[in-house]
Design brief:
734 residues; alpha/beta; 20-stranded parallel sheet; 5-stranded mixed sheet; 15 helices; 39 strands
Length: 734
């Protein structure tokens, strides 16, 4: 919008002088007209922007697509992914109809997943004509090219294969004349910066896990975007687990190039975006890539304590590599070690981890959920007090404390009715037990939010920039609290406005406990409470307590008598002891959640959820269970279109019923916390569960990803763009 002076300033001076003498009634009228003019101008600007695919609103996309004859797709939430790219690239599709690069881009635009198209007829091993030799198609793989051998039977396989006559659409056959494979990466890559690596337990010093909880989790590639539709995806362009061999080869070539004074070629370790970095003893600069050794650390061996070692050249000669190895890294296991002679007490790492979607503690944007916690019927509550927590950059004079305990101590001195925000400003590990004198106290009418967010400085009219309450950026961070956390509400028993606590975006390796008192609301939004070590425990009555768990991974939830309400939405609750939720006197509402364990409650209303353990509800005349998987022998309120009940309708043969019950059991890619595919439904599991939610998506926590609709959109679009006689098959890589 063009910046103009206020309308009042455009009036002749004589009218403004007279208006000043009369008490400025004309100024008030013109100001009112100016506001309406701004609304009209904004609407005109919006109408103009809606004429272009790059700037239009989401609701305009179907209308622009209709102008190009784009087929209507299954409805997918704009929060999942947008159809903007599909419509914008439609003309490019039609110019390149049927080509591998075009099909790859179509798969990416209709599903939101990274993809690679493979024409399997190009990989068939057949007799070649001497006038049309394909030197890249070798019938026998070269066993010396170990990096390429890792690609066998993957999307990047370059070896020739015998004909497979099974249809590719059945997901059994691949290599045949009409077969085109679309390899899809459903997991996403989440980069984290300067995370505290975890020392290995029970082993000598010098051994660390990349994961702050101390898990063997593979490192993921942060995909490099493709800028041209004519480019076929390479391994660097997809969010897959990092392999040892290509990283080892690149670093070896890098060391040799430095010795021979040749240009260094980088793919994974570019200066702008290396796939990982290691900072020893809190150093500001990372270990140079040429001083990193890639190896298999399944036995936790230490790297050689050598400054010079021979490297074999392609011609068989050797050259001395005068580069000290400071750290050895295993990207497959997410481990690192340092030489025995090195004294390393603290390691920070930059790396990416894979996961299915924006759930649990993660670096993805969470601003909307924080603002929702501040909203009320009358509008958002202003933040009265704010503090920061940063181990890496503390500044107590500016309100940034080095520990959680110090920030909580400052909060506990605030008056009742305060709206406070504690922003945790880095990805470090805080080994603290916030219990006893360090516990959180929430007075009457107060709201405390503990959020993984940056607290940037804002420019001041005069003087240096300062940190102001209410300014924060809730993304890019996932701090780690290693310890238990206790909270107590100090409001009187008969208070109408007991205090509230909301925790957002924090990884907690411990238990969250609510002590006896009067707490009005507890919110766990986008958090991870490590199942083996934590969960939620309300051991004492809190008659006004409402608990909300949103997009959270948690251990077992144990609620004492006197807790009225529990709401769980789009979360994963795992009970290592067998019980996921025990709320004997609570009314429980569960939406789009996966429970890996039993559920016991007084009253239940559930929808689109997956209960892997038995469900026991005391009051069955109230509530309803809709579009859920409920195991046999469960006692629930009335059910509507639940499995396996729906599959058993009309089946009277006991043997057939037994087969259905055996088949309709949830299967997961992984049930191990920390693994990239944790709680993801298995690709070969029952289709009734994969499409059994109310909107046709899968039951459970990943319903919001709407994966069946995205797959259906791709299959429906292939009919228009696939060449005659070819058949496409979808292959899920992750």
């Amino acid at each position: 919008m063009i910046t103009r002076p206020p309308i009042y300033e455009l009036l002749p001076a004589i009218h403004r002088i007279r208006d000043d003498a009369e008490g400025r009634p004309l100024a008030a009228l013109v100001e009112l007209l100016g506001r309406e003019l701004e609304v009209v101008e904004a609407d005109i600007d919006r109408l103009y922007a809606n004429q272009f695919i790059e700037t239009c609103d989401e609701w305009v996309l179907p209308y622009l697509g209709d102008l190009l004859g784009v087929r209507s797709l299954h409805g997918v939430s704009a929060a999942t992914f947008s159809q903007r790219a599909l419509i914008a690239n439609t003309l490019a599709y039609r110019r390149r109809k049927g080509t591998a690069t075009m099909l790859e881009q179509l798969a990416r635009d209709t599903t939101g997943w990274d993809a690679r198209a493979v024409e399997f007829f190009e990989r068939l091993g057949w007799t070649q004509h001497l006038n049309h030799l394909r030197l890249q198609s070798l019938r026998t793989p070269d066993l010396r090219r170990t990096a390429e051998l890792d690609w066998l039977d993957t999307a990047f396989d370059a070896a020739a294969h015998a004909v497979d006559v099974r249809r590719i659409a059945s997901r059994r056959g691949r290599h045949n004349l009409p077969s085109v494979g679309l390899f899809l990466w459903r997991l996403q890559s989440y980069p984290l910066r300067r995370v505290a690596a975890r020392a290995a337990v029970g082993l000598p010093a010098g051994r660390f896990h990349f994961h702050p909880v101390g898990l063997d989790v593979p490192l993921f590639n942060d995909p490099v975007p493709e800028t041209e539709i004519t480019h076929l995806a390479e391994e660097i362009n997809v969010p897959g687990p990092l392999r040892r061999r290509p990283l080892f080869d690149e670093l070896e070539m890098r060391r040799a190039a430095l010795v021979n004074n040749r240009p260094v070629r980088s793919l994974y370790f570019t200066a702008a975006a290396p796939v990982f970095q290691v900072f020893l003893n809190g150093a500001a600069s990372p270990v140079p890539p040429e001083e990193v050794l890639i190896c298999d650390l399944s036995d936790w061996h230490l790297p050689p304590d050598l400054k010079t070692y021979p490297q074999i050249q392609p011609d068989g000669t050797t050259i001395p590599i005068n580069r000290p190895i400071q750290v050895a890294v295993d990207p497959h296991l997410g481990r690192l070690t340092v030489p025995a002679s090195a004294t390393v007490d603290r390691v920070l790492v930059d790396a990416s981890q894979g996961f299915s979607g924006d759930l649990g503690g993660g670096p993805y944007p969470r601003l909307d959920s924080v603002l929702a916690s501040l909203s009320t019927v009358t509008g958002p509550r202003p933040i009265d007090w704010q503090a920061g927590v940063s181990r890496q950059n503390p500044a107590v004079a500016e309100g940034v404390f080095p520990t959680f305990a110090a920030a909580i101590a400052a909060w506990n001195t605030q008056a009742a009715g305060t709206v406070g925000l504690i922003t945790v400003m880095d990805n470090d590990t805080y080994a603290e037990d916030l219990v006893g004198p360090d516990r959180i106290e929430v007075p009457e009418g107060s709201l405390l939010m503990m959020v993984a967010a940056d607290w940037p400085k804002t420019p001041a009219p005069s003087g240096p920039p300062t940190r102001q309450p209410g300014h924060f950026t809730a993304e890019g961070l996932r701090p780690h609290l290693l310890g238990n956390l206790e909270v107590i509400g100090t409001a009187p028993a008969n208070s109408a406005t007991p205090g509230e606590l909301v925790i957002n975006g924090v990884l907690i390796e411990g238990q969250v406990r609510v002590l006896g008192g009067n707490l009005g609301r507890l919110g766990l939004d986008h958090c991870t409470l490590v199942p083996e070590d934590g969960g939620l425990d309300v051991a004492s009555p809190n008659p006004e307590l409402r608990i909300r768990i949103l997009r959270t991974i948690s251990g077992s939830v144990q609620l004492a008598s006197g807790v009225p309400d529990l709401e769980i939405t789009e979360s994963i609750i795992e009970g290592p002891s067998g019980i996921a939720v025990a709320a004997p006197e609570s009314a429980v509402e569960i939406q789009s959640t996966t429970l890996l364990g039993r559920l016991e409650c007084r009253q239940l209303a559930a929808s689109d959820s997956l209960f892997a353990g038995r469900v026991t509800v005391e009051r069955r005349q109230e509530g309803c269970v809709r579009f859920c998987y409920v195991p046999p022998l469960s006692t629930t309120p009335r059910r509507f279109r639940c499995q396996p009940d729906l599959a058993l309708v009309g089946v009277t043969d006991p043997a057939a019923q037994a087969r259905i019950l055996t088949r309709l059991v949830p299967s997961f890619t992984s049930k191990d916390f920390g693994q990239p595919a944790y709680a993801q439904l298995g690709a070969r599991g029952p289709v009734e569960l994969a499409t059994g939610a109310e909107d046709g998506a899968e039951m459970g926590a990943w319903r919001f990803l709407q994966q069946p609709q995205r797959e259906a959109n791709l299959r429906g679009s292939l009919d228009e763009y696939l060449r005659f006689g070819l058949e496409a098959g979808l292959v899920y890589v992750t």
